[in-house]
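Researcher: Next entry: BTB domain-containing protein (Gopherus agassizii).
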Amino acid sequence: THPQPGSTEGSASAGDEESGGGESAELPLQAPCGFSSSLCFSSPGAGDKAPQQDPGAASSCSRVVKSQWEINNAASEEEGEAGGADIARPPPGTYCLQAGAQPSSPQQPVSEEPDLVIEVSGRRIRAHKSVLAAKSDYFRARSSRDILRVKGVSYGALRLLIDYVYTARMGEVRHDNLAEVVSGARVLQMPCALHCAAEAMRAQLRLDNCYQLLCLAKKQRLAELREAAYRFMSDHYLQVLREPAVYGRLSGAERDLILQRRLEAGKRCLLVAEVSDAFERLSAGSRPQSRESSRPQSPSSVVSLEESSYLIYCYQEAAKEWRVLTRLPEEANVKGCAMCVLYNYLFLAGGIAAAPGEQRARLSDKVFCYNPLTDTWSQVRPLGQPRSQLKLLALDGYLYAVGGECLFTVERYDPRADRWSPVAPLPKGAFAVAHEATTCNGEIYVSGGSLFYRLLKDSYNSSRRRSADMVAFKSFIYRFDLSGSRGEQGQAGGVEVFRYNTVAKRWSQCASLRPSSGPLQPFRCAALGSTIYCVNRAGTLRFNLAQDGEVEADGGLTGSFDADLLKAPFEAKGVLLPFVLTLPEKPDKAGEPESPLVL
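Model: Predicted structure:
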């Protein structure tokens, strides 16, 4: 190495004298290494001895640290022993860090050796003026100085900030030193460092520190980190809801904010989930067709031999096609289960679990939850009572598990407490199986219903109409009934739509459809915007509600079926259950339909 010009040495001597130490003899101003771009740290003490040099070393450095990782580790060890107030203290000696970034301005070339000595808290850091001036207005305004004393910035914060200037990486910024780094970045006029520090903390957001980082971001006026903390809480809303140390300390406005952001995190989309037909028999064709429909069986007495993964499809409006979104978890019981959306989470509950080695299946009490914002499944508290063929509804921030096979009981799930509790059962005279249910104006409505045990209710087989599904829109409930003519027992010839005014408490028929292509198959419904989608494996009907203000006698909107039939998901199996979720705006996952999900 070569010494700096005499003017630099003179300035250094004057600076040392002013700082009141005889340290200049132990700390030569020339860099003790030959790197073209280096960052040198030194911490001399009055009683420190110059370290013994290795005779076989190629340079005069007592030690060369080749990576920032080694510097941070060495600093952490010294800090643990000293217990000082600084963020990080390097051990005695001089360290040289190979620079990972060059200044962006070509007219400010980097000199062979550091040409600036920075003094802070009795310690010194050697660096290049041109490198610092490219990122800091503070250093640019003082570029004429060879020795610069910095106040208002801790040594550890300054070290991290200068390291960022050279490497474009913000070292080890943590929630316990973020305030010092931010304060130092503002003193040194480095706005880019503020952004980098916020990004570094954003990657460290977790449930146990998101509230602390939110408070720190508000105190330090870090808008990017504050928004990232709110986004984290929104994306992990259920976990935040169950954590009193986080949700209990948020203001009412903040609680509304993170929920609103979750519900508006993207675009509302129509999705369908494949589930197994609860009435599927053990082996098709095992009995004559004439007796197939006369032998009463319970869904739980039917065990499917085929166990394969079931998918969730998302309808792409622009491409007019269905694409795979995710898989149902393997642990879920897709036969006879129910699904519902709450807080933009998809819940799957109950079903029929096929026990290995047993001919008769057992009912399931498992409940699963899918988060579309993180694309992950999780398992929540199981039902208090195993159920199949139940209805799952969301109302006022709670889930309701209504009825089931031979069950009249109803349970309510509190997501904040993660607990199911019994509520009022279904009224006497209601059928516990195959009923339709929905929520409207803060109330639960249950309609129809028929026992699966056909011999107990002969009129079901001779009925010309059976309910397909029931959905709510504003203050009205729309029920879709499949109808067939006499002699077409068990087959549907068309669909009739009935509307219920929840204020006047009156039913009226509002539309009907008799397709010429053949009888309609049973379907399930979901409302998206002003359209009700009726989905089955043959295709999707669209029932459009008029938005031009045209109403009928009971005050309900005029509705009509769209002539075009949307195609069903390709190779879909089982029964399709439609629902609506808000999906984040991101690239399509069409190229990864078979990626496995780990629960």
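Model: Note for the record: DSSP finds 14 helices and 29 strands in the chain.
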